Amino acid sequence: MKRILNCLASDFTKMNGKDLKASIEAAEGRTMIAEIVCTATPLYPGLTNAEYAAAFGADMILLNMFDVNAPRIMGLEDVPAENLIRKLKELLGRPVGINLEPVDVHALPAETLQKLPTGRISTADSLKRAKELGVDFICLTGNPQTGVTNNEIMQAITTAKTICDDDCMIIAEKTTL
C-alpha cells in the first residue's frame, strides 16, 4: 500500500475504506484533512472551496453541512445530485468524505438544540445513502448544540461499520465548547 503522500488520483479510485486507512497509517501522521463547509459560497467563481483546499495541500476533503437527502456543493450547481461526490473526487484527485451527526434523541438537552435535517444525522438510511453517493469516508461528529452524545457516537460507529463494511473509512470526533 502506498503512503497517502505518494498517491496519485488514479490510486484513490482503486481504494476502498480499508485501503485508505492503511495508506494514512503508512504516512505516519503526515496526512492533512481539510474540512469545507460545502454550502458556503466559493471564494472565487469557477472553483469550489474544496478545490482551493486541495491546491493548498489537503490530502483529504471533509464536507461539512452535506445533506445526503439534498446533496449540494456550492460551485458544482450544474452537476446532478447523484454525481456530486464523484465529480468532486474527479476534480480533486483526493478522497472525499462527509460529516454525519449521531444525534441522541433520548438525551436530556442542557441547552436549546439545533434541528438538523435527517440527511445530516447518522442513521442507517443516511449511511446507506452516503455509500451510494460514493463517499470515501464518513466522520461521525458532534458539533455543539446538536444533541450528540458519546454513547450515540459509539452506537453509530457499530452501525456504520456494518453498513459500510470496507467501502468507506469511518472516523469519529466530538467538538465541545
Summarize the entry for a quick read.
With 177 residues, this protein is α/β, with parallel strands linked by helices. The protein is built from six helices and five strands.
Explain what you see.
This protein is α/β, with parallel strands linked by helices. It is 32% helix and 15% strand. The protein has helices at residues 9-14, 17-26, 49-55, 84-92, 124-133, 150-164, and strands at 33-37, 60-64, 96-100, 137-142, 169-174. A five-stranded parallel β-sheet has the order 1-2-3-4-5. The protein is globular, with a radius of gyration of 16 Å.
Provide mean pLDDT, rounded.
92
Low-confidence regions? none
Strand order, biggest sheet?
Answer: 1-2-3-4-5
Q: Encode the helix/strand succession as letters.
A: HHEHEHEHEHE
Helical stretch count?
6
Instruction: Tell me the number of strands.
Output: 5
| Strand proportion | 15-25%
Largest sheet: 5 strands, parallel
Please state the structural category. alpha/beta
Rg over CA atoms: 16 Å
List keywords for this structure.
5 strands; 177 residues; 5-stranded parallel beta sheet; alpha/beta; globular
Secondary structure elements and their pairing?
Elements: H1 9-14, H2 17-26, E1 33-37, H3 49-55, E2 60-64, H4 84-92, E3 96-100, H5 124-133, E4 137-142, H6 150-164, E5 169-174
Parallel strand pairs: 1-2, 2-3, 3-4, 4-5
Helix pairs in contact: 5-6
